Amino acid sequence: MAGDATDDDCLIAAGIKRAKGLVTAVTSDTENVYITLSARGLNPDLFILARASEQGSEKKLERAGASKVISPYTIGASRMAQAILRPSVVDFIEIATAGQHLELQLEEIMIASDSSLVNKNLINSGIRKELGIIIVGIKKGQGMLFNPAPETVIEASDILITLGEPAAIQNLEQIAAQGA
Question: Against a cut of 0.70, is the pTM above it?
Fold first, then answer.
């Protein structure tokens, strides 16, 4: 839909009230703040990803209601430094996150309340042994467990951060979505 995202009527016509997420990435940080404020007012539960160009804009966007703020310049500079300091790590991350023409995929998978994985620990879940998937982390509420222990119990609404082959990830998504 073509329109001005700073206009509430345009946001409403685009479906902001039923939307789950919004990306505001116009070139002006001021407009991104304004869009964020408007969107947050129209849909308090909305996940808002905002782009920040200038230093200091991140905090303003967060105060305006952005759920997450990304600065392409900061990310680019950090990525360039990492490519020099840790080239093999950067290569691995590119392979794991590209998601196309490669054998690894990094994904997040939410555990449904009726999944057969609920109340099982990682070692007994079969995720590693049967599917060949590595659990890199588990988001539990607002907290994140990195490299969780094999005894870690999977609970409903946990988000598994996984690394594996696309077909195996698809299988796990099905198991996580409902009872097997």
Answer: no
